[in-house]
Specification:
The protein is an alpha/beta fold and 278 residues long. It has helices at residues 3-19, 46-51, 54-58, 66-69, 87-96, 109-122, 159-169, 189-193, 195-199, 208-218, 233-242, 251-254, and strands at 77-81, 101-106, 127-131, 144-150, 170-183, 206-207, 221-230, 258-266. It has a single domain, classed as Rossmann fold, CATH 3.40.50. It has twelve helices and eight strands. Strands 1, 2, 3, 4, 5, 6, 7 and 8 form an eight-stranded mixed sheet that branches. Helix 7 packs across helix 10 (208-218). The N and C termini lie far apart (42 Å).
C-alpha cells in the first residue's frame, strides 16, 4: 500500500468511527490523559464548538486551528486542502460571510459524505465540498483568496506539487495560511520509515528549513513559521503508543523536535505566468 492509499484508508475509517460516536479528541476539554492523540487534541474553543455540528468537531484530526490565525475577511474565497469532516470549512464560511465562500477539498469518500452531512446540519449555503487530490486541485487559476489546511500537507508524498498547486489557485496577493506538523531537528530513521507514523502526521513532516525553501521555490514570499505547540516527552510517548508501533523507546529522541506550527506565506501581487517575475 502506498502513502496515498494508506492515508485514505486511515481517514476513511476515522469518518466511520465518527458516525459511530467513537472519536472526539479535538474539543476544549480533550487531552492526552483521556487517551487522545496529543497532536489532534484540544484544538478548538467553546465558541467554535458551538458554531459547527458535533460530528464536525469530533471528526477533526488536525494539529492546529488555522481559521483562528488566518485573519479571514468578509467576501473572501477560502480553500481548505484536506477538509475531512469539514470543521475548518464551516468555520471559514461563517467568517467570510456575507459575500464569501469556503471550498473543502478531500479525496476520501467517507469524509466527503460526513462533510456534506455536517454542511446540511449547519444550514450554511456558502460551502462547497470537492472530491480530488491536493496535488491536483480542481479549481481554476487565481480563484481563491486564502488557502488553509490542517495537518494534511505533511501527508503528501509530493509536497512540492501541493505547494505549486496552492500557488496556482491563489489570486495575486492571496494568502497561504496552514497549520502543519514541522520538524526542528533530526528524527530517528525508524520513525521516518514508519507508515503508521506517516499517516499519523509525524514521519512525513518537513523540517522547518525545507518547508521555507519549498514555499519559496513555488513562488511564495513573506514565508513565516510560527510554532504553536512543542511536543514534549510525555506527548511523544503518548503519540507513539497511540499509533500501535513499538517505538516508545524512541520517545526521548522525538521529544522537542516535532512541533505544530502556523505556516504563512503570500503570493506576490503582480505575476506573469506560473511563477512571479523577480
Amino acid at each position: 500500500m502506498d502513502v496515498k492509499e494508506a492515508v485514505k484508508a486511515k481517514y476513511g475509517a476515522a469518518a466511520l468511527q465518527v458516525d459511530a460516536g467513537k472519536i472526539g479528541c479535538c474539543g476544549p476539554s480533550a487531552d492526552a490523559s483521556t487517551g487522545c492523540d496529543p497532536i489532534t487534541s484540544n484544538l478548538y474553543g467553546e465558541r467554535e464548538a458551538s458554531e459547527v455540528p458535533e460530528a464536525a468537531m469530533r471528526a477533526s484530526l488536525g494539529c492546529g486551528n488555522p481559521t483562528a490565525l488566518a485573519a479571514l475577511r468578509e467576501g473572501e474565497v477560502v480553500l481548505d486542502l484536506g477538509s475531512g469532516g469539514g470543521i475548518d470549512v464551516l468555520l471559514s464560511a461563517r467568517r467570510v460571510a456575507p459575500g464569501g465562500k469556503a471550498y473543502g477539498l478531500d479525496t476520501t469518500d467517507e469524509m466527503l459524505a460526513l462533510a456534506e452531512e455536517n454542511k446540511r446540519k449547519s444550514g450554511l449555503t456558502n460551502v462547497e465540498f470537492l472530491r480530488g487530490d491536493i496535488e491536483n486541485i480542481p479549481l481554476p487559476d487565481g480563484s481563491v483568496d486564502v488557502v488553509i489546511s490542517n495537518c494534511v500537507i505533511n501527508l503528501s508524498s509530493d509536497k512540492d506539487q501541493v505547494l505549486r498547486e496552492a500557488f496556482r489557485v491563489l489570486k495575486p496577493g492571496g494568502r497561504f495560511a496552514v497549520s502543519d506538523v514541522v520538524v526542528q531537528g533530526e528524527l530517528p530513521p525508524a520513525v521516518r520509515r514508519s507508515m503508521e507514523l506517516w499517516v499519523g502526521c509525524v514521519a512525513g513532516a518537513l523540517h522547518e528549513t525545507d518547508y521555507r525553501q519549498k514555499l519559496t521555490a513555488a513562488g511564495f514570499k513573506d514565508v513565516d513559521v510560527e510554532v504553536t505547540r512543542v511536543y514534549d516527552l510525555a506527548d511523544a510517548r503518548a503519540f507513539l503508543a497511540s499509533e500501535g508501533v513499538d517505538l516508545a523507546a524512541l520517545a526521548g529522541e522525538v521529544a522537542g523536535k516535532v512541533v505544530s506550527a502556523f505556516v504563512r506565506a503570500s503570493k506576490p501581487a503582480a505575476c506573469c505566468g506560473p511563477r512571479c517575475c523577480s
